[in-house]
Structure formats: C-alpha cells, structure tokens
Amino acid sequence: MQQLNVVFVLVAFCMGAVDCARHRGLRRFRLPEDTPVNDENQLATQVVHLYKDLNCTGNSSSFISSANAFMKEFQPYIHDLKSVKLCGKGSFFFFNSPEMRELSTLGHVTRCGPSISKSLDECTCEDIPWAARPIVESMSHYQTVFLATLSGQQSYYLMRAKTLYHTLKQ
After folding, report:
1. pTM above 0.90?
2. pLDDT tens string 31-43
C-alpha cells in the first residue's frame, strides 16, 4: 500500500513539473514584429441594426451574430422586421424558418466588392420587401471573401462569420 502511495506522489509531481515547463515555454513565445494580418488583409466584420420602422428609423437593436427566436433581443422582430442597416463589409440574410435553411431564404442585403470599406462606420439601409415582413423568423450575416477572378468575372463566396476560416493562397 505504501508503494502505491509513493507511485501516486511521483506521478503527481511529474505532472506538475511537465505542466510548469509547458507554461514557461508559452511565456517565452512572442508575436513577430511583422504579423501576417494587417488592416488591409484582415477579415471584415459586420454589425446589423434591425428596425420595426421603414427607412431605418425609430429604435433598433444591433447584432454581431446570427439570431432567431432563442435570442431574446431578436424576438420583437419576428414577423415584424421592416428595415435593416448593415455596417461593415459582408451580407445579411433573412429567413422564414428559425433553422436558417437555404431554401427558406427570403432575401439579403449585401455590402461587398473592392470599393466597399470594411469600416463599421459605413452602412447601407434597406427596407425588407413588404411580402417578407410578416414571415421573417431568423437572420444571419456573413463575411464575403474574394477568392478568385476568372475571365474578368469576380467570384464571391460567402462564409459564416467567425465560424469558418480559410487560408487563401494568392
């Protein structure tokens, strides 16, 4: 029994020593002077403001992520979303299902292209089409990432903000 206790003490000591060595190694890590991400190549962010009035007037709520009935702040806009203000660079989609299924997409607002600023101070306001207003049940906004130029046509692909990351090779 005493040998078993000695083994436990030795194992605990070794685990502590390995953990301490790992933390010392992490403290020595430094960021490089010239990091690979800068203001020009960082991924764009978006903020969307939802309104119950047309022309982005009246009170609003802002969102930086997807939302449906499970998010309390989004509940007032279910079946009563009249306009949206999208700030930054990306696309905003609204759906007639809480699950945000592709086939339930009602419409979108997009701010993308090389001339659009990533600044959250620059925004676009659009009214939701009248037929979609009473059936909106969820929303999401995405980053728009420029991936390729083929035969003079720009191809854009959407990726879910803060969920899916790609390394782009030029």
Report:
1. no
2. 677 777 777 777 7
